[in-house]
């Protein structure tokens, strides 16, 4: 069996049972979990420190966001099936089985028969084992899904598994555990090789590189693949290890390794499959080529990279103009002030500007002025001398402005900066020196400044809360990012964000009805709210394609509020066109109108002059939905 594909082939179970019989296991056998001595456990934990920390970083956010309402236990085991750690809800197991879900327990097939962890290791592939498929009777109350985590050399580094009660859809659980183990695998590879080697991320589209299902090739500077993930082998339909890039793609290796990391590169494999690649240079030698790296391609590129707006906009001319003008003036040292409602993507724009600027290899220091207590703003921004004030750290602090030296300083919510700090900032901008709190000495700084605000600064100036002279200093160029509801490309943006977050099994396009509801929403929280709504809907849909009723209630309510405001009251003498009468019973009338509108919720709600929420409730009562 191809180890990259999980199999629901029941041969997997039959073969495992045959192995158990060959080992002389008895179905009535009740093994002990074989907990190692505490010392040994400590050793194991130390040995697998990286695997443990990477897994925790990948698993815990997922657990909190998606699984916290489901009863399930996530286990990480080493390549010998010994549990290293577990997260989740122990209540899913019977008391007698609890020790099996704790660090130190061993799930090898030889010890406890057919089971998710042991069998996934035995067959080197993801597997799900249902209750009665367990060889030992004592395990037949368990349902487990497990997927091996492979290291960069395709050896098993560990196994992730999810044990759940019967209420979690099991196909979903297996998909989820595959996704998590793939994410851990990718992160391990990046950690191990990312600093010293080229990393090429491959996918079938140019906007999905961060997906765990991207292929990863780690290359040396001569273009040899020294490590890769399983997905890379799948996408390229070959074992990639030790191949040279020229053997894998029709493009010369120097062109691939010399490609700017801000732009996707289209590649064709030797088997004529078209893929997109993102090429990351070794992090250890920022912006320069490592020793022996391929000769740079002849290029007339300026020192700055082309602005990567592939993720900023999908055809909105206002956003495009904002981004390109900001980059031009920033490169010449002119401060940029970005305005726009909350959540429109001001910080995202700043990150793109930094990546595109000549200072991309220097720090981007982002400070949210509203998030720092007013009394600490000065010391946090300008730094302080050792012992400058009670509670200060003994060694002093350089402060955010000096941390941004040679790079870009982004002051978000600048309007919230206290007046005293405003005067100090003005001096930094005029004299290009910083004087730390408690010091008399000034330190020269070289920063490009970008500021942002979601509230008009003019009002604050009128109220004496913001210095007019500072306003003119920071406002070299003022650009406004449009609200989501005014963006011409919102349909494409919604689709792109959905695509980035969707479950692997979900259709890659939203249905026209859902898309239209999202497109017509007023979005007071802009893109931030859109991302949240989509993530909630994806979680609620639980692997199915998103339908209107998967959208969160508050979204529907907000949508309603705006829809009903715009809707004229229906004429009181409205009659049912089907039979010329209007039913007095609200439920019956709901049904009449719903059928008349051939199930179009928006139209029916408008006609009934009720909110879509109320319409859904009535339809549920009627058993229609
Ligand atoms: N073009 C985009 N594509 C995908 N996601 C985006 C885009 N722009 C913004 N986002 C997402 O929207 C959220 C808000 O973005 P961001 O923090 O940049 O907004 P902001 O305008 O700085 O907000 P605030 O004014 O509240 O600080 C983030 O989660 C970000 O990832």
From TrEMBL:
Pfam families according to UniProt: AAA_lid_14 (PF25601), HTH_30 (PF13556), Sigma54_activat (PF00158)
GO molecular function, one term: sequence-specific DNA binding
Limits of the Sigma-54 factor interaction domain: 312-539
One of the GO BP terms on file: regulation of DNA-templated transcription
Region (Disordered): 280-303
Membrane among keywords: no
Keywords: ATP-binding, DNA-binding, Nucleotide-binding, Transcription, Transcription regulation
Keyword set includes Mitochondrion: no
SUPFAM superfamilies named among the record's database cross-references: Homeodomain-like, P-loop containing nucleoside triphosphate hydrolases
Top-level taxon of the source organism: Bacteria
Name of protein: Transcriptional regulator of acetoin/glycerol metabolism
